[in-house]
Design a protein that fits this description.
The chain is of the alpha/beta class and 418 residues long. The protein has a domain of 238 residues: 3-Layer(aba) Sandwich (Aspartate Aminotransferase, domain 2), CATH 3.40.640. Strands 1-9-8-5-4-2-3 form a 7-stranded mixed β-sheet, sandwiched between helices. Strands 10-11-13-12 form a 4-stranded antiparallel β-sheet. Strands 6-7 form a two-stranded antiparallel sheet. The protein is globular and about 75 Å long.
């Protein structure tokens, strides 16, 4: 391409607008208007639109129980609590994720222990997970980062062999599949975020799923209104807990209405995301300096493409990753980085600074010592990962083509920025 880089004063390569997300159509507006007019703003039971959404989402994933929450973080915390995680236990976490995937363990008073990731998928590496298990381990938290399915069969086998709970963090994975099963149908618990950027959104909110009544009632007894607990709890050990001491993690009526209205479109949007991602990756296949994340190899597995992940190849470029991203942004590409520094190297974990007095690490006689080199693949990924923060949920061929042109333009003229 002959045009000057936008970073050096040339025209932007991307002039088309990206698809608007979240998608709020007339059906969604009508649903929100109806429930705001006709239903309680903050329901305390599985009634009305909240009950309908819980039932539809549960059935879609072929699960037995569903509990709507006010955030994905709350859904994760309740999933670990429901799994029996207690103060002083350890939870094996990914260091390469959003902080909620780790905060949920800390919120239970548990200590995160980090396993490394796979360089291609950014998901937990099963061999590294098994190497981290000890007598204090209680659960494994698997993250489907950017919507790429984690290796659930291997993780399920490890969890079964060691008597551990397995929780799926599906915050970025609505619409994805693993070997024919929807993501969210595999672990002992699964937790979804419905925050505004997610593939299925309520503006804010979350939902957890599971199949066994005892873990479910343990989770519910910690996170919802006593009026709902009176109506729904069956097991006596949890009925005796009914009071107003639990967390207030209830979902707002409007969030349930938005998510419920969008549920009809989830699979169509997911197919469109996959098609657009495949087209974009094919267009940049020969562009030096970047590599696409290949789709899952297992039959029946499908990437959800919350964002479009890429890997920067430093040896192919005369500039570093951050300069490359800066040039892309100048061209109109919604490029950025996600993790950069694995969580165990960040100040709050290095300093054991959560609630104070080094809690929960102070509960263990031998807590993990977080140090550089613990997870070398994650540390390397922090230096090379790039993501496109865009939802390609509708036909947008011209926009996708312009994104690819911007990558070609920057790669071909990167020497001007060195």
């Amino acid at each position: 391409m002959s045009e000057e880089l936008a970073l050096l004063g040339g025209p932007r390569a991307v002039t088309e607008a990206p698809p608007v997300w979240p998608r709020i159509d007339d059906a969604t507006l009508e649903a929100v208007t109806r429930v705001l007019r006709d239903e309680p703003l903050c329901p305390v039971g599985a009634t009305g639109i909240q009950g309908e959404f819980e039932a539809r989402f549960r059935d879609l994933h072929q699960r037995r129980f569903a509990l709507a929450t006010n955030s994905g973080t709350a859904a994760l915390m309740l999933s670990l609590h429901g799994s029996g995680v207690q103060p002083g236990d350890e939870v094996i976490c990914s260091p390469f994720t959003w902080g909620a995937s780790i905060a949920c363990a800390l919120q239970c008073g548990a200590i995160p222990r980090f396993a490394d990731i796979d360089a291609a998928t950014y998901a937990l590496d099963p061999a590294s997970v098994e190497a981290q298990i000890n007598e204090r381990t209680r659960a494994i938290l698997a993250v489907h980062l950017f919507g790429y399915p984690a290796p659930m069969s291997e993780l399920e086998a490890i969890a079964s062999r060691h008597g551990l709970a397995l929780v799926e963090d599906c915050a970025q994975a609505a619409g994805g599949r693993y070997r024919g099963r929807r993501l969210g149908s595999c672990g002992h618990f699964s937790a979804f975020s419905l925050q505004a950027s997610k593939n299925l959104t309520g503006g804010e909110g979350g939902i957890l799923l599971c199949d066994e009544i005892e873990p479910y009632e343990r989770a519910m007894s910690m996170g919802t209104h006593p009026a709902r607990l009176v109506e729904e709890l069956e097991l006596p050990q949890f009925r005796e807990r009914i009071d107003s001491l639990a967390f207030n993690f209830r979902m707002h009526t409007a969030s349930a209405a938005i998510a419920n209205a969008q549920l009809d479109s989830l699979d169509g949007w997911s197919d469109q995301r996959r098609g657009n991602a495949g087209a974009f990756y094919a267009m940049i296949d020969k562009v030096p300096g970047v590599e696409a994340q290949t789709p899952p190899a297992e039959a029946g597995s499908q990437h959800a493409y919350y964002h479009l992940p890429l890997r920067f190849v430093p040896e192919a470029m005369p500039i570093d990753r951050d300069r490359f991203v800066e040039a892309l942004v100048a061209e109109g590409v919604p490029a950025g980085t996600y993790v950069r520094v694995p969580f165990y190297l960040r100040p709050r974990l290095q300093n054991r600074d959560w609630l104070g007095r080094e809690f929960p690490w102070s509960l263990s006689d031998d807590p993990p010592q977080y140090a550089r080199g613990d997870c070398p693949v994650a540390e390397a990924a922090g230096l090379t990962e790039i993501q496109l923060k865009v939802s390609l949920h509708e036909p947008c061929a011209d926009y996708v083509s312009q994104l690819a042109n911007a990558f070609r333009k920057v790669a071909s003229q990167a020497h001007k920025l060195s």
